[in-house]
Amino acid sequence: MEIEELSNCEALPLLSLNHVSLLCRSVWDSLRFYEDVLGFVVIKRPSSFNFNGAWLYNYGIGIHLIESPAMEDYESRPINPKDNHISFQVRAAPCTDVGLVKRRLQDMGMRYVTAVVEDDGVKVDQVFFHDPDGYMIELCNCENIPIIPISACAFKPRDTAENLLTREQDVPSTSSAEQSFVYAP
């Protein structure tokens, strides 16, 4: 079916996000990270696979690790909140908050970057860091910002969907909401 034909059809009958698959150089190193840092639990993986890997699960989502020793070595690079990443919601205070997340990452000697996003007086705290293979992880209190469909928003005449989607490109990369703190042990 071509894209043009899809636009006239209803969306596919999806239920939820099931899992994210990640290539990794060492299943063992990645397992330790996702268990110890993010609290995932190793679950049974089908025995019919003929390659090294592991399945983890928690928070309603799975992470499937696929070992690929041929992967290029991860070169440490700056943590960029605008890069591809997986985001996890942190529990609201008093149990856990972003401040506690930062303290725990510091205790583990992990490098991270923080950012604050603000919309209509509502603030979202974000913490970004890399896993052992360089995949970026975000932890945030994103529940602070309500989910409002674009169709329900009042727009100025120039606020077409195309303008809204491209406006981000016009934002300078030195925005104060982008990067407020870099922690590197």
The sequence of SSEs as H and E is: HEHEEEEHEEEHE
Which stretches are low in confidence, meaning pLDDT under 50 for 5 or more residues running?
A: 170-178
The fraction of residues assigned to DSSP E strands is 25-35%
Net shape: globular
Mean pLDDT: 82
User: What count of domains describes the coordinates?
Assistant: 2
Radius of gyration: 19 Å
User: Largest sheet, order of strands side by side?
Assistant: 5-8-7-6-9
> Helix share of residues?
10-25%
| Multimeric status of the protein | single chain
Q: Which class of secondary structure composition applies to the elements?
A: alpha+beta
Q: How far apart, in Å, are the first and last alpha carbons?
A: 51 Å
Largest sheet: 5 strands, mixed
- Tell me the number of helical segments per DSSP (H or I, 4 or more residues long): 4
Got a strand count?
9
Walk me through the structure.
With 185 residues, this protein is of the alpha+beta class. The protein folds into 2 domains: 16-70, Roll (2,3-Dihydroxybiphenyl 1,2-Dioxygenase, domain 1), CATH 3.10.180.10; 77-185, no CATH class. It is 16% helix and 28% strand. The strands form 2 sheets. Strands 5-8-7-6-9 form a 5-stranded mixed beta sheet, with helices on one face. A 4-stranded mixed beta sheet has the order 1-4-3-2, covered by helices on one side. A hairpin with a 2-residue loop joins strand 6 (112-119) and strand 7 (122-130). The chain is globular. Residues 170-178 have low confidence and may be disordered. Pfam families: Glyoxalase.
